[in-house]
């Protein structure tokens, strides 16, 4: 496969501070561990992003920071405000602008879960894929040579994991 997408929903965040704006919510302890586990799994599985598109919300940035501890530094890290609660059409548009062959996109539900369902022709057989829980990560392969040629249902599921699958 020529192109590869790593599609991750942010890890579990805290609702502990009722005064915090949604955008500013931080990862809770469980989310911190989950993001770490996802980063380790990506490294062990040789799913190494070369370009990262990450929402500017606190919980997505913290998710990437935890994941990145186990990964080589990507050629490009882009903090993208438009990823905050983006709809699938926005996610596709942003992905079509990517340049590296392996791209990680870190965002939010419901958009990221809906996008995951639309981008693959063969959804993974997994109890949690339909709800795309926090920390869920889908690896998608594409035969296309350029991201601008990607369309819905053009991707093939390579792998899918949730933090629950990685609990040790």
TrEMBL record:
Amino acids binding substrate: 59
Gene3D superfamilies named among the record's database cross-references: Phosphoglycerate mutase-like (3.40.50.1240)
SMART domains with a match to the protein in the record: PGAM (SM00855)
Protein name: Phosphoglycerate mutase
Organism: Haematobacter missouriensis
């Amino acid at each position: 496969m020529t192109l590869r997408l790593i599609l991750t929903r942010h890890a579990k965040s805290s609702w502990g501070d009722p005064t915090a704006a949604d955008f500013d919510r931080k990862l809770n302890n469980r989310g911190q561990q989950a993001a770490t586990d996802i980063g380790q799994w990506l490294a062990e599985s040789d799913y190494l992003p070369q370009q990262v598109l990450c929402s500017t919300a606190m919980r997505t940035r913290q998710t990437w920071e935890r994941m990145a501890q186990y990964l080589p530094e990507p050629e490009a890290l882009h903090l993208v405000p438009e990823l905050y609660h983006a709809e699938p059409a926005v996610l596709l548009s942003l992905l079509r602008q990517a340049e590296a062959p392996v791209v990680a996109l870190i965002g939010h539900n419901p958009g990221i879960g809906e996008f995951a369902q639309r981008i693959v022709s063969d959804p993974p057989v997994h109890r949690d894929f339909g709800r795309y829980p926090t920390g869920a990560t889908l690896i998608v392969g594409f035969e296309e040579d350029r991201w601008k040629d990607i369309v819905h249902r053009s991707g093939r599921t390579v792998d899918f994991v949730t933090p629950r699958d990685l609990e040790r």
